[in-house]
Amino acid sequence: MSSLSQFISDLASGAVRVVDLTQPLGPDTPVIGLPEIFAPSPGLSVKQISRYDDDGPGWYWNTITMGEHTGTHFDAPVHWVTGKDLPENRCDTIPVGRCVGPACVVDVSADCNADPDFLITPDRIEAWEAEHGRIAGGSWFLMRTDWSKRSDPASFLNVAADGPHSPGFRPDAVELLIERDVLGVGVETIGTDAGQAGGFEPPFPNHTLMHGAGKLGLASLTNLDQLPATGALVVAAPLRIVDGSGSPLRVVAFIEG
Ligand code: 23J
Ligand code: MN
């Protein structure tokens, strides 16, 4: 049997399962809050075109409006100034093959429960590699924080007087992942950088360094607790928006068992 027909029969038998890493997308989906000097990104609004009525007796459809970076979404390298001149850096030009890869899932949920400002370090990634093997080039690096379990938007955004508090990456951890040549990183939080990352050096290291290296981002993922540390296959392909900096998307993982 060819490997693809094996895969198809494993899907049919349930030997391979599909896990949805996507949050529902609705008008109440939270959006990132930036300092007021910057333009805000609007959340989803939905306007009905018709619903089996005078505007369309046999059909239902809507118009949707939202920022590209709303809900479970994809960050393209062109999103950040450091990635603006790279080849194949936008939603319509990224080869779809770069959106598909094995997942390395690092569970830092206990650390994030103890400290909402938890930052993953190179040591922590190397400890994971000592247990599970070196991160292969072309992998998605997924950080399991269990942040997606914060179903109340206020606790998900976790904004205090000094700004948002949510976990992320230390700059040297981002550098290590670039060295490993990952496809990109995926997180459960509103963005791929920590809530306090605007004050890091460089600011927003996951955006500044990852996108500068042509790497991708996935934000607001869920169900990472259903994935094994290694062995899942993740498909995360954005809408092919011309000159798009990112897009909401459906993120799908295939796992064994
Ligand atoms: C713009 C500015 C800062 C950040 C972001 C966007 C995101 O997190 C995003 O969705 O790309 S941190
Ligand atoms: Mn984004």
What percentage of the residues does DSSP assign to strands (E)?
A: 25-35%
Residue ranges: pLDDT <50 for 5 or more in a row?
A: none
What is the distance, rounded to the nearest whole angstrom, between the alpha carbons of the first and last residues? Answer: 20 Å
Task: Profile the largest sheet.
Answer: 9 strands, mixed
Report the C-alpha radius of gyration, rounded.
Answer: 19 Å
The helix count comes to 6
| Quaternary organization | single chain
Number of strands: 15
Mean pLDDT: 98
Small-molecule binders: oxo(2-sulfanylphenyl)acetic acid, manganese (II) ion
Strand order of the largest sheet: 1-15-13-5-7-11-12-4-14
Task: Please outline the helices and strands.
Elements: H1 3-13, E1 16-20, E2 45-53, E3 56-65, E4 73-75, E5 100-107, H2 109-114, E6 119-120, H3 122-132, E7 140-144, H4 153-157, E8 159-160, E9 163-164, E10 168-169, H5 171-179, E11 184-186, H6 205-212, E12 216-219, E13 232-235, E14 246-248, E15 252-256
Parallel strand pairs: 5-7, 6-10, 7-11, 11-12
Antiparallel strand pairs: 1-15, 2-3, 4-12, 4-14, 5-13, 8-9, 13-15
Helix pairs in contact: 5-6
Manganese (II) ion binds next to strand 4.
